[in-house]
Amino acid sequence: MSRTRIVQGKIYEIVEEHLSYYSEAGIVESASASYIENSDTKIIYAGNPDNAPSADIVNYYIKVRIKDPANYKGEFGFDWIDVDPASEEINKIQDVDFSNVEYFYRKALVTSDLGDVIAKITDEPGAKKIIKESYRFNEFPLPCTNGRIDTPFVLIKPDPTKEISLSLEVNIGSGSLVDEKIYLEGDEFYSFELVGGVKTGNRTEKQISSNKEVVELKIKCLKESPEKKYKIQQENPTKKLITVGGFIMMENKVLKLKFRVIALVSADGAPSAKAQALFQKFKDSNVKEYLNENSLNQAGFEVELENQAMFDGLGTVDLDDYFYAFDKVDWTNKKYFGNVVKQKYDVIPGTNTCKPGSIDASGNCKKVPVSTDVIVDNQKDLGLVDKANEMDEVTITEYKNKLKGKSKTYAGGLIILSDFESSDNNTGAYSRTNPLNHYSLIVYSTNTGSKDTYAHEIGHMLGLPHLFFDTKEKASYKIARENILGNGQAEKNPDGSKNENCILPIETWIRKSRTDSNTTYSPSQATAKKSTIISRIRNSNTYFQSKVTEITTLKTNIETKYREQPGSVIVAGKGANAQTKDQYLSICRNEISKNTAYINENRKVVQELNTILSDKIQVHKYKMNLKGTDYTVILQETKSYYYSVIHQIHSNYLMFIKGTTKNILDYDNTRIVYLHNQIKTMRDDLQNY
Question: Which residues is 388 bridged to in the sheet?
Fold first, then answer.
């Protein structure tokens, strides 16, 4: 190999540290004029020459992954992408092929827009761009000459007695390894150990020698930590440090979730015994342990049971404070309870074993129609109108009323175990992403022992939508957008009548109420805190009362002044605007009656609102009467809430084909993991509690 350099001008070499030349033969330097060498210390013209380092330029990077993925059970949070280091093409997200990404959230180009969830097929480069941004693909420098480094997200809860293991896989692009070392620096938050290497203080280092060599990295979290980025650096004979790998340790303050577990049973027979059987199944399924060790722990949560003592004393303690027993006749009349025919596997009762003779030609157990008692989630399941019963809220209300009758209260999180199936074949449990501080879930008898069901539903409770984007998800997203932007329909029909299907943008309502500050608005519902609504209603009632007082005074004055005059006498206005005594008094009576009715309606609403224990932002379905300025305050809170809801949806920026991932918010799969953005959404959502 040779190098010839011909320059017609000048060459300057400025080096801050060392400059070394190596050659197997002689080195010749010549000058037509003077040749000058200077040194601040001394110039040595003799001595033994150093050996030159390898001429190979080694280009490699280190891929950080779970050490034993086949046996990983969600013991810690870990999220990664596989990227081709040369082409920077995204191959996989958490071991799921990029082809299975179906939709993604494309950010807005202007602040006045919300962006939109779109099909990946319509903008594949846009999908890849948003994935790289989310995984902070450009934060680490180039590893040598090719490609960028993927940086997994890791979350482990603080505990210096426990450690996790990751694998560091060496991937060489060119050259060969000669006396190469990699090292990591720990700190007050994390201790790192490269197994088989040397650990000195916080620094751990290990020599590597071959392509595809896998080094085990052990990590301990010494205490709660902010989010921190850790670099794996290369140290070669030239002492040049290059980042060749790394990972991001996510913020990991332990967040507490406390639930009371209660049972929903029927009042016939022995309801306490039914409740005990449900509690025993929950306990035997080790749900709490699973949530703390194999699912929610990945997001730094710790679940506590408010009634742990009850579980510890099952069989000996009184359970009456921990179940609600409904009357079947009463709930049947209310369409909360019913009987439907379901197609079920023809198994021996109490087992999963198919009955003899009930196996089909494919070797599967046949399904047969079975008459089944159910909790009715939607009345359409009984062949009636499409009306959701919101049985979780019904149960919570009835349970709290029961406690109230015993001079007791409870306002914390609830896990409701139902002794019956849902009327919907596809529903085994449910919770809600909104209201944002919704703190409960209901689990039907089909899923009481299904541990990942609890993690899935608590994920919803903490703001996570499904990881797929099917009919229901699209409908929910449409509503969330229309709440903010409206649906674009005209306010009036062609005949001039009101278009009942028109949804105006929330900002339009705010402008209207702010402009018409003294106009009375009578919405049939409001999305706000109970305390905000009560405050604004009372303020409006003060205004309505002042109107009653003012108009009553005017009415009295006219009645007194024109007592002896006939009703036809003009008492106000002129010309076309003239009002007779009878007209004037009629208007006064109507205004007094109207404002008095506003006041009385509002007082009833306040009474109803005061029966609600929580002060969370939610839909309150009561007709109320509000002065424009007061309605504006409520609408501002509504707007803020709507934006929080849409933000949570958008934070779930990737949606996959259903059943293609191992994500806990997927369906029809083995559910083990969360994505890092899901972890952040859940952690951020806890502030709503």
Answer: 378
